[in-house]
Amino acid sequence: MKIVHSRKSRSAAIAAATALVLVPLAACGGGDGSGDADGVVEIQFWDTQATPARTESLNEIIDLFEAQNPDIRVSYVGLPSDSYEQKVDTAIATGSTPDVITASITDSANWVAQGALAPLDDRFEEGGWPDLISASMVETARSVVPDHQLYFAPDTGLANTMWLNLGILEAEGVAVPTTWDEFYDAAEQLTHPERNQFGYIFRGGAGMFPQVLDAMYGQSGVSSFFDDDGNSTLNDPRNVAALERYVGLFGNQTASADLTNEYTNMVAQFASGSGVLMNHNIGSYQDHVEALGAENVLGLQPFPSAGGPVTVSGATVLGQAMFAESEHPDEAWRFIEFFLAPEGNAIWAEQSGKIPSNLEVAEQDWIVEAQPLQAAIAALNDPATQVLREPFYLPEYNAIAKTQLEPMWQAVLQGDMTVQEFLDTAAAAYTEAEASYRERVS
Amino acid sequence: MSTVPTVTERPAAAGPLATAAPVRRPTAERRRRELRDRVILYVPLSLYVIFTAVPFYWMLMFALRPAGSTSLVPWPITFEHFHTVWVGAGFAIFFKNSVFVAVMSLILTTFVALLGGYAIARYRFRGKALFLIIMLCTQFIPGAMMLIPLFDIFRTVGLINSLGSLIVADTVFQLPLSIILMFGFIRNVPVELEEAAWMDGCSRLRGFRLIMLPLMRPAIVAVGSFAFINAWNNFLFALMFLNIQDRFTVPVGLGYMLGEFSVDFGALAAGGVVAALPVVLVFAYVQKFLVQGLSAGAVKG
């Protein structure tokens, strides 16, 4: 074997070897695919919650859009729901963001804080959308950012829902509950540990906070997260009493293993019939129908508080956002508008089992037939309903719930901490976060 | 069922004393001891098998039984979930991409590790010890920390959205450990074997090919299988360096089975079977080489 001695020829050999490796590798199919060809503009669209069903729906929408807009081609990229944040953060850091991305209010708050999203107010106004899209959803989308601008166009909404396995309720002769008292009675009557059947499914693990808020504010009737002075209402005596009653379900009308439950376990328990009642997002509607059949699934909105109104929490919105670095903002906006227009909005809302933002779509026949969606729309549109707006605009909002409250919640369920201590700690953390926020904004 | 060999069961050694010894008959105490020995052996083993096998059974059960079924036995069998992941989730494409990336990483890692390990084991050069320490230290750096610099480098050389980026990243991240493994193995092969070949007229390269390579088969299989499995399972690089749907690999596709508000357990389990099968097959084939390869550098021969 001949050995290369001179520095110059050694460098040349290294360069040649590198090229030898990289050239074939690059030929494995590079290119970002965003170039224009034959006057057709290609826009990148990232779906942050990709599942096979969602991908199919989105591809249907993309096909329709491309048929109506032959000058635009949409390149779809599906990202897994549990890891998209890292991908998007890397894209923001390296300046390689797509044109359009599906966004939630939490995402929107995070990405706006990094200066990554483009405001859509002017385009939204010019398109005449304020009259066609739910004002409540638009307001929710605006409420999570300090400058109160619209950074994502809301196309669908979500609401926390009390799910019932109607088949079991009817088999056991238990009436569908309409009040909190009836709910507790039903949970007790439906509990048969010897058959591994429990009246209620508790969320003791990750993501427990929405369920806690629903149970607490729903029973107490307290309508806002903070009082006028910026103090959290979490430890309001009415909330403390409500949560103490709710915690009493754990281990009695629920399985003890629910201590570490997150949504995957909850949905599986509900599908298997080992849990009969469950508080979970309306987004899981299609899965319940698939597992139990539409005739066995009932979705209820929160019961009225004792002598008071219905208080709804967890009402959130989802939509499409445009990155500030998009090279094709006009084409990207046309694609976003397609999700707001009746045709795209109806497909998207119906196939994903969510509440449509388009007012015309909200009155279509399929909504009337989808009982949980209709119940959610009716509750949200009822003037008497109180909507608890969670402070998603606080950067610490999710972090406090996840890192501080989740471990403490399990201590509460195991009897190592009182409900009062738990709520005092939570209220102090959120009050401090709110005070910092008000100081920054002012 | 075979019995557990115990001291009392062992046949008496051949010899005059053995033949003179009286035949020992089973006694109640002996039977108790046998039972105890069996319990000590089989109970932990059974528990271990249950812990290992139940997740696999769970996966197969959910993958093969119809959606909505609560049966603990996958009957009637359905392949609808496999159709969902293979066609609906795009596993047909992801699988091909994963195979390509894993095989290429295997080839590159093994080839470079072979050369690197040989050079470190057989040549003396300045900074060799430091080089080995630096290679060990690279194992402490998590891949996630290198994402942004790697992304920038791959974009500069035009490897973003190319499976080549995964092959390069996987190979580079696996090389330090692979080179160290190869170095340990080669060091324990007496250099005199090669010297004898050189004396017989072989060049170094020919001597390496004819003498060393056959001896290093266990190490090559061990390093190659590690490279294949690590590249097959790598999720992070595939997610980060690819922005084209048809270029993703199986681990990314597996992530599609968990929605934010819902989960399709049947499809998740079917995806798990598709993802696990190649790894299980590779392990089943190479396990005997793997043990030899890993222990080869442990004891001086």
From TrEMBL, chain A:
<feature type="signal peptide">
    <location>
        <begin position="1"/>
        <end position="26"/>
    </location>
</feature>
<keyword id="KW-0449">Lipoprotein</keyword>
<keyword id="KW-0732">Signal</keyword>
<dbReference type="InterPro" id="IPR050490">
    <property type="entry name" value="Bact_solute-bd_prot1"/>
</dbReference>
<keyword id="KW-1003">Cell membrane</keyword>
<protein>
    <submittedName>
        <fullName>Sugar ABC transporter substrate-binding protein</fullName>
    </submittedName>
</protein>
<keyword id="KW-0564">Palmitate</keyword>
<keyword id="KW-0472">Membrane</keyword>
<dbReference type="InterPro" id="IPR006059">
    <property type="entry name" value="SBP"/>
</dbReference>
<dbReference type="Pfam" id="PF01547">
    <property type="entry name" value="SBP_bac_1"/>
</dbReference>
From TrEMBL, chain B:
<keyword id="KW-0812">Transmembrane</keyword>
<dbReference type="InterPro" id="IPR050901">
    <property type="entry name" value="BP-dep_ABC_trans_perm"/>
</dbReference>
<feature type="transmembrane region" description="Helical">
    <location>
        <begin position="84"/>
        <end position="117"/>
    </location>
</feature>
<keyword id="KW-1003">Cell membrane</keyword>
<keyword id="KW-0472">Membrane</keyword>
<dbReference type="InterPro" id="IPR000515">
    <property type="entry name" value="MetI-like"/>
</dbReference>
<feature type="transmembrane region" description="Helical">
    <location>
        <begin position="219"/>
        <end position="245"/>
    </location>
</feature>
<keyword id="KW-1133">Transmembrane helix</keyword>
<feature type="transmembrane region" description="Helical">
    <location>
        <begin position="39"/>
        <end position="64"/>
    </location>
</feature>
<feature type="transmembrane region" description="Helical">
    <location>
        <begin position="265"/>
        <end position="286"/>
    </location>
</feature>
<feature type="transmembrane region" description="Helical">
    <location>
        <begin position="129"/>
        <end position="151"/>
    </location>
</feature>
<comment type="similarity">
    <text>Belongs to the binding-protein-dependent transport system permease family.</text>
</comment>
<protein>
    <submittedName>
        <fullName>Carbohydrate ABC transporter permease</fullName>
    </submittedName>
</protein>
<keyword id="KW-0813">Transport</keyword>
<feature type="domain" description="ABC transmembrane type-1">
    <location>
        <begin position="95"/>
        <end position="286"/>
    </location>
</feature>
<dbReference type="Pfam" id="PF00528">
    <property type="entry name" value="BPD_transp_1"/>
</dbReference>
<feature type="transmembrane region" description="Helical">
    <location>
        <begin position="163"/>
        <end position="186"/>
    </location>
</feature>
<dbReference type="InterPro" id="IPR035906">
    <property type="entry name" value="MetI-like_sf"/>
</dbReference>
